[in-house]
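Instructor's aside before we start: the two examples that follow are unrelated to each other. I chose them only because their records fit on one page, so don't look for a connection. First example below.
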Amino acid sequence: MARIARVELTMVDLQPKVKRVDAIQSFVSQETPIVRITDADGVTGTGYSYTIGTGGPSVMKLLEKTLAPAVVGREAEEIERIWRDLLFLTHATTVGALTAIAMAAIDTALWDLRCRRANLPLHRLAGGARSAVPLYTTEGGWLHLETSALVEDALQAKATGFSGSKLKVGRPIHEDVARISAVREAVGPGFEIFTDANQAFSVDDAIRRARHYEALDIGWLEEPLPADDLDGHIRLSRSTTIPIAVGESLYSPGHFREYLQKGACSVVQVDVGRIGGITPWLKVAHLAECFNVAVCPHFLMELHVSLCAAVPNARWVEYIPQLDEITTKGMRIESGKAIPSDEPGLGIAWNFEEIARRTVEGSRSVLN
């Protein structure tokens, strides 16, 4: 083992490739905190997380003032111990998004460092369950798009070999039904259509909408209610045959346990950047496996491809490119499936020159 000798913090602000509008928000900025951890042997691991346009400076201050100083001098291989210590160090701000996002950047860097020291790719070191994972796309399903654009994107995804598309919902019911129906008619029965409400509905509205969506054979209804409405999700799950998907707005493994124990969801969409890193992500994935529930993570496809390949119950990777501007090559795709990298580490080919060029002013700091 080797102790952590240096922690370097930066943040870049990436612009999404397409306009992204859902039922509650539109975001045009993707703040991306990046952490580089170097051990006493000179091996460096790189980690990251993200926001969708707000909170990035707060995450960077938490990293700079609290988390990064706490890991300098620690044994880099003691990832579980470090994660638990950081959790208790920030007990006054957990469970919460900003703390989880900051911890994720540290934790993913430590896992990258571990993989590089072991000369293994993440998908093998974390489990090695499979060599490819099916893809579905979200990039062409945003709520502001016309129906014709949804159809065109789904047909293109199908022709590319993808197995599904996700459509945002939240328009009046008859409009949502018409949009989903048009896509279903175009792609046929063998192609998955997922829907995402982004927490926009009340319980009664969600139950009513689910009744209309059922005839369209959708793969799941994602985030139909506010994430903290556990009882509402229980009521909804009992009232519909549509699988209910949750997870991108849950920030603790314990919250996933409650949802699974109470039958409040049937698809887990745990997000590395929001659960606090790879360490808790793997706990949630294996917990879901014990309940015979699939893991279909939210966003971060460049990292989630390796984690999905590591566990046996991962079903999908969500195609939303995030890192193209700051990497030298993208995620490998073959026949509509995501292929994890066999390079040591997280499998992300960072372009550090471009990261340096795009670094947000005032966000860079180094701790020794």
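Example two begins here.
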Amino acid sequence: MAQLQVDIVSAEGHIHKGEAAMVFAPAEMGEVGIAPRHSPLLTRLKPGTVRVRTTSGQELAFFVTGGILEVQPHLVTVLADSALHSKDADEAAALKAKQEAEEKLAGAKTSTDLAKAQQELVEAAARLEFARKLHNITH
């Protein structure tokens, strides 16, 4: 069976390295699915979930705040701005981050503050959605 080598890294360090049968990622223009022998691709990622289906059929989930996805025929590299493994997802912390981002957005006085607050809110909302989906799957 053909397979992909997957490497997920962020500024915090190495998040995941392993073999996969399929990878799904939140590209800026929509979710992409990558199978072995995919044509080369380089695209930006938006905040969301990167899913890795292993060769044994297990699905691993990782939250990314954005970054770059590089695809080669047998290699997928995710260079995430920040990443979180599903086992580290905390719904309460994600909800708090979303509330703080909403407060910053409401108090933004300059266009720079507004743009930064909007980006933080998008990331926090995506992180909260990631944590809630995981919570619903495991319970």
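The CA atoms of residues 6 and 76 lie 5 Å apart.
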